[in-house]
Amino acid sequence: MPVSAADLLLDERTSLHARIRQLQEAMGVIVESSRDSNADDEHDPEGQTIAFERAQLAAVTDQAVAHLAEVDAALDRVAQGSYGRCEVCRQPIAPARLEVRPTARTCVQHAPGRTR
Predict the structure, then answer these.
(1) Residue 3's pLDDT is what?
(2) Does residue 39 carry a pLDDT above 70?
(3) Cα angle at 25 between 21 and 9, to 5 degrees?
(4) Alpha-carbon distance 105 to 114, whole Å?
(5) Which residues fall within 8 angstroms of residue 48, CB to CB, at 6 or more apart?
(6) So what's the pLDDT on residue 12?
(7) Which residue among 9, 23, 94, 99 is least enclosed by CB atoms within 10 Å?
(8) CB-hemisphere CA count at 13 Å for 102?
(9) For residues 47 and 81, what is the distance between their CA atoms, to the nearest angstrom?
(10) Burial class (CB in 10 A: 0-12, 13-18, 19+), 107
(11) Closest Cα to residue 50, out of 39, 59, 60, 61?
(12) 54: closest CA among 36, 34, 30?
């Protein structure tokens, strides 16, 4: 029996919640480990690495949170019955596009960033 889009999105949502939790825990470890240090990031050779790790981890966390919002929006479209329809032209989004990008809001023709 084929898996529904909603099931795939719910699985992705669960995975994202777990990933975000892991990233937040990792950030907590980095912050805690540098809390008792008197090193300042600007002048300590290790400080630059710690600052880079924090910035990189924050960026990855932000991306995961943004993707979670996309998944939640797609689940809302499933619930409303509008999932799989382009938000611009209202035509069906190709199944191959939804397979590759289940959170797609538009058909390929109306995809953001596409030159026409």
Answers:
(1) 74
(2) no
(3) 15
(4) 14
(5) 41, 42
(6) 96
(7) 99
(8) 21
(9) 51
(10) buried
(11) 39
(12) 30
- The C-alpha atoms of residue 70 and residue 81 are separated, in whole angstroms, by 16
Does 42 or 80 have the greater pLDDT score? 80
- Three-class secondary structure of residue 103 per DSSP: coil
Q: Which residue has the tokens 């919002």?
A: 69
pLDDT in tens, 46-55: 556 778 889 9
Long-range contacts of the stretch 15-18 (C-beta < 8 A, 24+) = 16/64, 16/67, 16/68, 16/71, 17/68
Residue 40 carries which side chain, given as an amino acid letter? D
20: which 2 tokens? 């975000």
Mean pLDDT of 1-25: 92
Above 70 in pLDDT, residue 44?
A: no
Q: What is the pTM of this model?
A: 0.81
**Contact 84/5 with Cβ under 8 angstroms?**
yes
Q: Mean per-residue pLDDT for 60-65?
A: 98
